[in-house]
Amino acid sequence: MGQRRQPPTEPHADDDAALFREAVGPVRRLRPSPEPPAAPKPRPAARMGAQDEADALEALRRTLESGPLEAGDALSWHRASVPPRTLRQLRRGQFAVQDELDLHHADAAQAEAWLREFLRQAREAGHGCVRIVHGKGRHGDARAPVLKNLVDRLLRQRADVLAYASAPPAQGGTGAVLVLLAPRRRG
User: Fold this and answer.
1) Geometric angle at alpha carbon 55, from 169 and 59, rounded to 5°
2) pTM of the complete model beyond 0.70
């Protein structure tokens, strides 16, 4: 007795996939298509530049709201990235002063030029903390101390200034300001 062969099975009418394969017949696989190109990466945003702009606008807003400084007013300012603790240490004179500029007897134009050059040289020398003596402004003809307000305005605008505060009494009090400078970039 030989083995009995079963007739080929016909697809059931209710098996849709089998009916489809029978109707289509033999197929040839296609080569995989390449992946579509990725969307271009967004351009990097200049976050530090935007932060500097925001800091400058905030400083200008505060200056316009408060008006000019008076002779006995204490200077104090810091970037958002500088912790309040660091500003307190600066106010107490707990940073070693590495250089000093005395602006006594300078007019506003001279003082601004000297101050810009002094800060440039201090930064190049790698100084972290400097003192600027601007005087209290009690001997001038103007109502507000010109040099003190000039120093306040100029320091707020500089990207290399991290913080500043009026010096403690033993280091000049409200007639001098201690300035923390950003470290010089290598390269």
Assistant:
1) 55
2) no
Question: What would the pLDDT profile of 12-41 be if each residue is shown by its tens digit?
Answer: 556 888 888 888 888 888 888 888 888 888
Nearest residue to 123 via CA among 90, 166, 161 = 161
Nearest CA to 172 among 97, 66, 83, 111? 97
What span, in angstroms and rounded, lies between the C-alpha atoms of 134 and 177?
A: 8
* Percentage of the chain modeled with pLDDT above 90: 40
Give residue-wise pLDDT tens across range 50-107.
777 777 777 666 655 556 666 667 889 999 999 999 999 999 999 999 999 999 888 9
Q: Where would I find the H helices in 31-181? A: 47-66, 84-91, 108-124, 146-157
CB 177 within 8 A of CB 164: yes
CB distance 112 to 146 below 8 Å? no
Rounded alpha-carbon distances, angstroms, from residue 35 to 30, 32, 39, 41, 145:
15, 9, 12, 17, 68
The predicted structure's pLDDT at residue 186:
66
Question: Residue 43: CB partners within 8 Å, gap ≥ 6?
Answer: none
DSSP run (H or E) holding 129: strand 129-133
